[in-house]
C-alpha cells in the first residue's frame, strides 16, 4: 500500500541471519523490497548502518520488522520536513492486544504515558530520543556509531546534536502488538535498558553540549526510568526498617506480608495485584539492565518475543 501510494519509495530490509523463511518471503517481492542478507548474527545496529549507506533519498525512515505503518504515514511525515529547522521526526506508536494479559495491559499503560511525555517534549522543543517503531532523519545527519549501541536513540539524537529539532508527529501512526508473557517482557526491558545506558555512556560528550532545557528533559526522564527500581527497593527497605524500629514484630509482619504478596502476585495473571507485580518487575528489570551496562555489558543481538 505504501509503495502504491509512493512509487519512488525505496524500501530496504536487513535480514540478520534468520532461520525461518523470512528472507525468502522478502526476496520473493523484489518489486516492493530490496533484501540485504547479513553474513550471520551481527545485530540491528550493524544492519541499519548498511541500509542507511544504501539509501538514496534525502529522508530516511526507520521502522521495526514487527510494525505496521498506516497508509498515509509517509505522506504525513514528509510534510514536517518543509521546515528546515526540523532534523528528525518521531511518529506515534499505537499498541494493540492489551487484553491478552496483565503484562500486556501494563505495557499498554506505560506506552501511553511514554507517548504523552514525548508529545510534551516536542511541544517544548526537542524529543529526547525516538524508539525504533517509526522515526525519521535527514540523511545528511546520519551519524557514525558502534554496533553495540541502541541505534534508534543514537540516530534520532543526532538531530538534536546537530542543532536541528527532533519533533513528534501525532498524525504519523504505526501499530505494534504487545508482549503478553511476563518472562519475555522482563528480558526485553533488561536488554533495552542495558543498551540504552550503554548508549548514554557513548553519547555523554555530546549530551554535555546540549541546551539546559534539553539536559533537564533528558536527565529527568532517563534517570528516573533507569533508577526507578532502586527507588522502589530503597522505599520498601526503609518502610520495613522504620516498622522494625517502632515495633519489632510489626516490622517482621510487614516483611512477611510483602513476601507473601509477591509470591501470590507472581502466580496471578489478572487483577490489581498482578498489575502491581508487572510494574515492580519492569522497574527491577530496567535496573538490572543498567547495572549490566555499568559493568561493561551490552546486547548486540537478541531473539524477538514470541508472544507478540
Automatic annotation (TrEMBL):
Family membership: Belongs to the glycosyltransferase 2 family.
Name of a matching Pfam family: Glycos_transf_2
Species for this entry: Asticcacaulis benevestitus DSM 16100 = ATCC BAA-896
Keywords in alphabetical order: Glycosyltransferase, Membrane, Transferase, Transmembrane, Transmembrane helix
Transmembrane segments: 223-240, 246-266, 273-294
Xref: InterPro entries: Glyco_trans_2-like, Nucleotide-diphossugar_trans
Name the record gives this protein: Glycosyltransferase 2-like domain-containing protein
UniProt-listed PANTHER family: POLY-BETA-1,6-N-ACETYL-D-GLUCOSAMINE SYNTHASE (PTHR43630)
Amino acid at each position: 500500500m505504501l509503495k502504491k501510494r509512493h512509487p519512488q519509495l525505496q524500501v530496504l530490509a536487513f535480514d540478520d541471519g534468520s532461520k525461518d523463511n523470512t528472507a525468502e518471503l522478502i526476496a520473493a517481492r523484489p518489486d516492493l523490497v530490496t533484501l540485504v542478507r547479513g553474513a550471520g548474527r551481527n545485530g540491528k545496529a550493524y544492519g541499519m548502518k548498511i541500509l542507511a549507506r544504501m539509501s538514496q533519498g534525502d529522508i530516511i525512515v526507520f521502522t521495526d520488522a514487527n510494525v505496521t505503518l498506516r497508509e498515509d504515514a509517509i505522506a504525513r511525515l514528509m510534510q514536517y520536513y518543509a521546515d528546515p529547522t526540523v532534523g528528525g521526526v518521531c511518529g506515534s506508536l499505537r499498541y494493540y492486544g492489551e487484553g491478552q494479559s496483565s503484562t500486556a495491559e501494563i505495557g499498554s499503560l506505560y506506552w501511553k504515558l511514554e507517548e504523552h511525555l514525548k508529545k510534551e517534549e516536542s511541544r517544548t522543543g526537542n524529543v529526547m530520543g525516538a524508539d525504533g517503531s517509526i522515526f525519521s532523519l535527514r540523511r545528511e545527519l546520519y551519524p557514525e556509531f558502534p554496533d553495540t549501541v541502541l541505534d534508534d536513540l543514537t540516530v534520532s539524537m543526532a538531530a538534536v546534536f546537530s542543532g536541528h529539532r527532533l519533533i513528534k508527529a501525532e498524525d504519523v501512526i504505526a501499530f505494534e502488538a504487545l508482549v503478553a508473557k511476563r518472562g519475555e517482557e522482563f528480558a526485553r526491558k533488561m536488554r533495552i535498558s542495558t543498551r540504552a545506558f550503554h548508549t548514554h555512556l557513548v553519547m555523554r560528550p555530546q549530551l554535555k553540549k546540549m541546551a539546559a532545557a534539553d539536559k533537564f528533559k533528558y536527565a529527568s526522564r532517563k534517570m528516573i526510568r533507569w533508577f526507578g527500581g532502586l527507588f522502589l527497593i530503597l522505599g520498601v527497605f526503609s518502610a520495613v526498617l522504620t516498622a522494625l524500629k517502632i515495633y519489632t514484630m510489626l516490622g517482621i509482619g510487614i516483611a512477611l506480608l510483602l513476601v507473601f504478596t509477591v509470591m501470590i502476585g507472581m502466580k496471578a495473571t489478572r487483577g490489581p495485584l498482578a498489575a502491581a507485580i508487572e510494574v515492580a518487575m519492569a522497574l527491577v528489570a530496567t535496573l538490572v539492565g543498567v547495572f549490566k551496562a555499568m559493568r561493561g555489558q551490552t546486547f548486540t543481538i537478541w531473539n524477538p518475543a514470541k508472544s507478540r
